[in-house]
Amino acid sequence: MPAVDNILFSRRRAERFAQLLDEANGGRRHHVRSRVDGQLAPLVAVGQRLSVDPPAVEVNPDFRTGLRAMLLATAEREGLGTPAAAEPAATRPASTRGSLLPAVTARRARARGAILIGVAAGAIAVSGISAASENAVPGDALYGMKRSTERAQLALASSDISRGQLFLDFARTRLGEAAKLRGDRIGYSAVLDDMDADTRQGVRLLTAAAVQRAEPTSLDTLNTFVTGQRRAVGNLVDGATRADRERTGRSLVLLDSIRERSDALRAAIACGLPAPTGSDALGPVPATCPGAR
Question: pTM of the full predicted structure?
Answer without folding.
Answer: 0.61
